């Protein structure tokens, strides 16, 4: 504190009057910073500021009015947390908050809870190209439930010791509908964690929207989602380079558009839930990454080179691959198209222990369509339609069909490659024609038709499940 005097000059006719007023004033911000320079060290009190020039020795003033070191040498944790705790009440999606531009802001764990910064109010956090330099084992940023629909963008997360494996987390998602965009995670333990239950506390993490994220050598996971309420997210333009990939253990799955995976260790993109209905569109993986894996019958994979490098029970379409799967909710009957690499169709009844495959038998003595057991080519079976205790129907070895018509068709179309399936595939929904070799159980009658071609053949029908080789 210093004493200041104000001298007043007053013109009063017929004399000039001098007056003096003295009062106490606070030191200028620059002097105050010099006096309290010790408070800039980690663990000490905060230094406040009201303009960029009011911080000394290269420190800068944050939006919330605290001095921070933009070079990453001195912790900025206390200053940034004070800013977040004093944000005004959000009117809409969140309070806009801008970090100092192009700064390195060091984050540690002063209170020992394992978390550097916590956001507990809706925020629109603009990184402005800055880096959060995170000490080992620390969660850099936790977005808590009261901050639902917050957003974070244009920001990097890097370790203080790049040469050592980091055990911390870049962003710990504990809020619903968080928006993330244009973020870089460099050599963290896990780039982003989104678990619906952490330390026994539940959070709703559905409807996440994350885009343009780059993960570089995050050795535990680039992204790890888990729990019953981490579903229905939209993730676009993810790039994972080295380290480990993405593990999605959400219950019902999320949507991934154009993820790129390169040089990862255990996971490329792994969809770990058997109940998932995830959609993956245009995934790209380098050959030095593991196979993409998905454990659900309901997942859908569309396009991208990763179709060739996918281990999944789900549907896949693209790069000359097609695998569509259906399940009857009442009977449990499952149908797959194609059934296997050489099978056009496969089906599995819940009371039957094995899959049955409709495939073309391309053998000199037998060129025909028929069912095979376990997709073996030792014998062809036909479906009689009779019930039996172990399965939905009785399968018997079929009588080889007269292949004259098929061979004539191939010859007429100038086919130079012998064998293979007939040139014209059977049309769905058409009734079976009388086999060339008569079936003693077939009486030539037709059952009533339904509008759905898949139900034209009834369970008690005595007929071949066979379509003639002639064009439809």
UniProtKB/TrEMBL annotation:
- Signal peptide residue numbers: 1-21
Does the UniProt entry include the keyword Magnesium? no
Q: Which UniProt keywords apply?
A: Signal
Q: Which organism is it from?
A: Lujinxingia litoralis
- In its UniProt entry, what is this protein called? Right handed beta helix domain-containing protein
Q: Where is this region: Disordered?
A: 409-462
């Amino acid at each position: 504190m210093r004493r200041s005097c104000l001298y007043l000059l007053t013109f009063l006719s017929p004399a000039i009057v001098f007056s003096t007023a003295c009062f106490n004033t606070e030191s200028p911000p620059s002097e105050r910073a010099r006096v309290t320079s010790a408070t800039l060290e980690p663990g000490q009190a905060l230094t406040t500021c009201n303009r960029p020039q009011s911080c000394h020795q290269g420190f800068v003033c944050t939006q919330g009015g605290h001095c921070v070191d933009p070079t990453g040498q001195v912790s900025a944790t206390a200053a940034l947390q004070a800013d977040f705790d004093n944000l005004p009440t959000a009117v809409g999606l969140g309070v806009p908050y801008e970090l100092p531009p192009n700064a390195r802001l060091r984050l540690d764990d002063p209170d020992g809870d394992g978390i550097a910064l916590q956001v507990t109010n809706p925020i629109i956090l603009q990184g402005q190209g800055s880096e959060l330099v995170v000490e080992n084992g620390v969660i850099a940023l936790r977005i808590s439930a009261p901050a639902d629909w917050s957003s974070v963008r244009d920001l990097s997360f890097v370790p203080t010791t790049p040469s050592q494996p980091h055990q911390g987390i870049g962003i710990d998602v504990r809020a619903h509908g968080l928006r993330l965009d244009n973020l870089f995670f460099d050599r963290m333990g896990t780039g982003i964690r989104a678990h619906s239950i952490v330390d026994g506390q539940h959070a709703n993490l559905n409807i996440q929207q994350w885009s343009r994220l780059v993960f570089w050598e995050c050795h535990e996971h680039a992204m790890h989602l888990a729990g019953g309420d981490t579903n229905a997210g939209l993730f676009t333009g993810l790039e994972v380079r080295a380290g480990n990939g993405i593990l999605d253990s959400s219950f019902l799955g999320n949507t991934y558009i154009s993820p790129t995976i390169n040089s990862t260790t255990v996971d490329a993109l792994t969809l770990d839930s058997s109940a998932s209905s995830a959609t993956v569109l245009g995934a790209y993986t380098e050959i030095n990454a593991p196979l993409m894996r998905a454990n659900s019958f309901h997942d859908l994979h569309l396009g991208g080179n990763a179709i060739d490098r996918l281990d999944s029970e789900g549907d896949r379409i693209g790069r000359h691959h097609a695998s569509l799967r259906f399940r009857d909710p009442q009977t449990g009957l499952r149908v797959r198209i194609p059934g296997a690499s050489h099978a056009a169709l496969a089906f599995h009844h819940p009371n039957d222990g094995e899959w049955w495959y409709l495939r073309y038998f391309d053998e000199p003595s037998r060129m025909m369509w028929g069912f095979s057991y376990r997709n073996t080519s030792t014998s062809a079976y036909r479906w009689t339609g009779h019930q039996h205790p172990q399965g939905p129907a009785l399968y018997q070895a079929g009588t080889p069909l007269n292949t004259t018509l098929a061979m004539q068709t191939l010859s007429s179309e100038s086919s130079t490659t012998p064998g293979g399936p007939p040139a014209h595939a059977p049309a769905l929904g058409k009734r079976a024609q009388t086999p060339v070799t008569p079936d003693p159980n077939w009486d030539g009658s037709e059952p009533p038709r339904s509008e759905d071609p898949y139900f034209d053949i009834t369970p008690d029908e005595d007929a071949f499940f066979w379509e003639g080789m002639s064009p439809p």
